[in-house]
Design brief:
11% strand; 4-stranded antiparallel beta sheet; 2 domains; 4 strands
């Protein structure tokens, strides 16, 4: 791994091989939106013969899934009825079928009754999306504002290095790489296994962005330090390569601890946070790859102005 920078076009090709299939699936099928984005129905259920500790969110979720409500969100609580505490569940699902809504309601209640005894449906109402188009637009504007702030901050932080604005631009390009990977994989998983994007997805995406920039700054900071102690005649490409090799163990070890934790959550954390953990894992691995094999390599491409030879043959 001592010639990482010299293989930069191989790393760029690997990134394209990951991004292009996801982009194709995204263009063809888009993202499978969950009820947080699409709206749906809100069920208020009471379980007079049970306590909250006896209810299981995954079991309730499975009953709804068998009756056409995949991805239901279950929240357990206790309510007082005539001074008596009764176990309750508020369930958010997609909209009821327009053809046979009564049958769907009856089948759900019967399925829960078979498991928990008496089940009372107190209310059922249509609800709008939790993450509305306005909220999504506001989040996008906030991300763009954060990108501008990152660009300004890195330009100031690396002002003692040659061409400081390049560090901010390359960090943002690496971050864009991670966003494209996450969106593409979400489109593929949505088509393959029905993964839905919800409010957790937005949270995971913003977390991935912060991880990506954080790891990239570590590499860039070492490059800046090595430039300050540059030997006479030492090429910029060699400085970048040496800096990556120095930070490689730290980057990998740091990210592995997070990957181990997320893997444990994926295996034992339950269905409620599974989509969140999957997106975080994908984004974390993509961020580690882009900070090491893309961001710093883009600095070399820019320094050498290699795009001048991309579309024409070099002179003999």
């Amino acid at each position: 791994m001592k010639n990482i920078v010299r293989l930069r076009y191989l790393w760029f090709a690997i990134s394209l091989l990951i991004i292009v299939p996801g982009a194709i699936f995204y263009a063809m099928y888009g993202l499978k939106t969950g009820i947080d984005f699409a709206g749906g129905a809100l069920w208020d259920l009471h379980f007079p013969t049970q306590t909250t500790s006896q209810l299981n969110t995954e079991t309730i979720n499975e009953v709804f899934a068998k009756n056409g409500f995949e991805g239901a969100q279950v929240q357990l609580s206790t309510v007082k009825v005539n001074g008596v505490d009764i176990a309750s569940a508020v369930v958010r699902t997609k909209e009821l079928s327009a053809v046979n809504p009564e049958d769907q309601q009856r089948n759900v209640v019967e399925g829960l009754t078979a498991i928990y005894g008496t089940v009372e449906r107190e209310a059922l109402q249509s609800v709008g999306p939790t993450v509305s188009a306005e909220a999504t637009r506001s989040a996008a504007i906030a991300v763009l504002g954060a990108c501008l702030a990152i660009l300004i901050y890195l330009t100031i932080a690396f002002r003692n290095a040659p061409n400081p604005i390049r560090y901010g631009v390359c960090a943002l390009l690496a971050m864009l790489h991670d966003v494209l990977v996450v969106l593409g994989m979400a489109a593929i998983l949505g088509f393959a296994i029905g993964l839905e994007i919800d409010a957790y997805f937005l949270t995971a995406l913003l977390t991935v962005i912060s991880f990506s920039v954080h790891d990239t700054i570590v590499v860039f900071d070492r490059i800046r330090e090595n430039i300050a102690h540059r030997r006479s005649g030492e090429a910029f490409e060699d400085i970048v390569n040496h800096s990556i090799v120095q930070t490689l163990p730290r980057s990998i070890n740091t990210q592995l601890t997070s990957i181990f934790s997320l893997t444990a959550l994926l295996l034992f954390g339950g269905a409620t946070i599974r989509n969140l953990v999957v997106i975080l894992l994908i984004g974390l691995m993509s961020g580690t790859f882009s900070s090491i094999f893309n961001a710093a390599q883009l600095l070399v491409v820019w320094e050498n102005r290699e795009w001048r030879t991309w579309f024409r043959k070099q002179a003999a």
